[in-house]
Design goal:
With 616 residues, the protein is of the alpha/beta class. Among the domains are: 90 residues, Immunoglobulins (Immunoglobulin-like), CATH 2.60.40.10; 89 residues, Immunoglobulin-like. Helices cover 25% and strands 21% of the residues. The chain has 16 helices and 30 strands. The strands form eight sheets. Strands 9-10-13-16-17-18-21-22 form an eight-stranded parallel β-barrel, surrounded by five helices. Helix 8 packs antiparallel against helix 9 and helix 11 packs parallel to helix 15. It is elongated. The N and C termini lie far apart (73 Å).
Length: 616
């Protein structure tokens, strides 16, 4: 009788007793399951196309095991292990996902619209660095208006700490943060608070330490494609079918068994696939099928800025809900600091760039991009504003500054508040990086606990990457595998109270985002913008009726007095006047107050502030 399995591979606890094991190992004639509690190995039965499978009656949930391949040593972990209690080099543990008692049956999932994303790294989000400690902080996020928590990668990796982008056990939640059921409790608690949770996954490469896939098959690595990180995964070559299944089913697994509400796909520009159906499209389709009636939110990081990833499958796209928009960040960063090094060199930080990023998403949609000496991007026509994830800080951009400095430390308080206002009221989907809401002082730098020659290579590679920034040439770089580097990045939650003005700013802006209809319901065509001066611009949100119109005025420079204001977007709805609903210079947020903007003297735009006007 065929065994009913949740996954096509790995260890499956059977009703009654026993565990069914299945592994793809076309390079091997004989595969044995070796239980850690002793005894001889149990040979699995060969199946067609390189599969090996069989039941071990003595195994149960909690049993630790490894595979012996063709009688060789070393023993290897299960490629689809659900847990590695001692890390990637240790034994796998049989996990029964059905034993957890979920309470989120009524949770509907996440829609594309209306999300406010909060990116966090479990190992530095709290001093404890665990799922349980992070869960205790979820009410604080829900309180200020976060709707979606994005967890940096958790696929297990070796060492005591790391970002997670070098994961090698793709089905095993990293043991550093707790057991798999601790991850389930986190998600279940988030859903009880009205928060969705999406997971950052890496399908463009595997880590350099602890990857045993090559011992079962050499088909995981492409023989024809390479990327900036070297070998790429084989999604379109010989024997690619089981490789595609391994990754597509991984996406479904996180949704089905741990109830994540979507995915953030890392660096999809490095996923090379010439198949008729791109693996990214297949990943999205498989994840949505696993969700059943729950809706998912799936986004991608895409440095090449190919809009196809966010277009519907029916229109020839890859069917994702959105894409990260580095262009918004880069323009805002240059506007705030004036620095145009490395990949900032193709940006001016001008008001027009910020207006265009708000209205059209990517700034580069096919123009020549001098930093990369090639054209970049494709047209975003037809995409909705919320399909672009906007940010001032994220894990990459913070770590690429001197000493892992956060955005608020790189510019003046006034510009920081003004650009935060733009971020949180713009029609895109805003993303905050852990601690950003209270102006955390903790840096975020690259850390990875690799030793020996690999540790030295990683240290050298990080230094070479940062050499693109001349200003960092004489800056001592944190040592990636030094535990002190990791500890320095841990948030100080006492700052949430000590930095109250920053928290109040974010909380108030997210309230406005929820409650102001013209901002909350912004669509393509309902938002327009205009340049007002060398560092000033306006964004007009058109409501369902004129009285719902809202005008956001941002000035990153000195005070601007528009005695003559021949710009139609500045005109209030007929029969109305503009009143100031919000100013980033409010003393509650650490500012000094500001005069009215629209009066008989003309249109006054105070320096280094943003103001939201409403019709009265």
């Amino acid at each position: 009788m065929p065994v009913k399995r949740r996954l096509p591979f790995g260890a499956e606890v059977l009703p009654g007793s026993g565990v069914h094991f299945r592994v793809w190992a076309p390079r091997r004639r004989r595969v044995e399951v070796v239980l850690e509690d002793g005894g001889a190995g149990r040979a699995l039965e060969p199946e067609a196309h390189g599969w090996h499978a069989g039941t071990v009656d003595e195994a149960a949930a909690g049993t630790r095991y490894r595979y012996r391949l063709d009688g060789d040593d070393p023993l290897v972990p299960d490629p689809a292990s659900r847990f590695q209690p001692d890390g990637p080099h240790g034994p796998s543990e049989v996990i029964d996902p059905s034993s957890f008692a979920w309470t989120d049956a009524a949770w509907p999932g996440l829609t594309r619209r209306g999300q406010v994303v909060y990116e966090l790294h479990l190992g530095t989000f709290t001093p404890e660095g665990t799922w349980a400690a992070a869960a205790a902080r979820l009410p604080a996020l829900a309180e200020i208006g976060i709707t979606c928590v994005e967890i940096m990668p958790i696929a297990d990796f070796p060492g005591r700490f790391g970002w997670g982008y070098d994961g090698v056990c793709l089905y095993a939640p990293c043991r550093l943060y707790g057991r798999p059921d601790d991850a389930r409790r986190f998600v279940d608690r988030a859903h009880a608070l009205g928060l969705g949770v999406i997971l950052d996954v890496v399908y463009n490469h595997l880590g350099p330490d602890g990857n045993y896939l090559g011992l079962t098959s050499d088909a995981y690595v492409s023989r024809t494609h390479r990327s900036d990180w070297g070998d790429t995964l084989n999604f379109d070559g010989a024997d690619a079918g089981p490789v595609r299944e391994y990754f597509a089913e991984n996406a479904a697994y996180w949704i089905r068994e741990l109830h994540f509400d979507g995915l953030r796909l890392d660096a999809v520009q490095a996923i090379v696939d010439d198949s008729p159906v791109h693996i990214v499209a297949e990943v999205g389709r498989r994840a949505r099928a696993a969700a059943g009636t729950r809706s998912l939110f799936i986004v991608a990081e895409n440095d090449a800025q190919v809009a196809r990833f966010a277009r519907p499958l029916a229109e020839g796209g890859h069917g994702l809900d959105g894409v990260w928009n580095d262009d918004f960040h880069h323009a805002a960063r240059v506007a705030a600091t004036g620095s145009r090094e490395a990949y900032y060199s193709d940006f001016l930080g001008s008001p027009q760039e910020l207006v265009s990023a708000v209205k059209r998403g990517y700034l580069y949609q096919g123009q020549r991009y001098s930093f990369e000496k090639k054209r970049r991007g494709t047209s975003t026509a037809g995409l909705e504003p919320e399909q672009f994830v906007l940010y001032l800080d994220n894990h990459d951009q913070v770590s690429n500054s001197a000493g892992g400095a956060r955005f608020h430390t790189l510019t003046s308080p006034g510009r920081y508040r003004a650009l935060t206002t733009l971020l949180l009221l713009a029609p895109g989907t805003p993303l905050l990086f852990q601690g950003q809401e209270f102006a955390a002082s903790a840096p975020f730098v690259f850390f990875a606990d690799h030793g020996g020659a690999l540790g030295e290579a990683v240290k050298k590679g990080r230094a070479e990457f940062l050499r693109q920034f001349p200003s960092l040439a004489t800056t001592p770089l944190p040592v990636p595998n030094d535990p002190a580097t990791h500890r320095a990045c841990v948030l100080d939650w006492g700052e949430r109270d000590r930095h109250r003005p920053a928290l109040e700013l974010h909380s108030e802006l997210l309230r406005i985002r929820r409650e102001e209809a013209a901002i909350r319901d912004a669509r393509a065509g309902s938002v327009d913008g205009a340049v007002l001066g060398p560092a000033a611009f306006a964004v007009r949100f058109f409501g369902g009726v004129p009285a719902e119109d809202r005008l956001l005025v941002v000035n990153l420079g000195v005070e601007l007095r528009l005695v003559h204001a021949p710009e139609p977007l500045l005109a209030p709805p007929e029969g109305c006047r503009w009143s100031t609903f919000f100013t980033s210079n409010d003393p509650r947020f650490g500012g000094e107050g500001a005069p009215a903007l629209d009066d008989e003297r003309g249109f006054i735009v105070p320096g280094e502030q943003a103001a939201l006007l409403g019709a009265t």
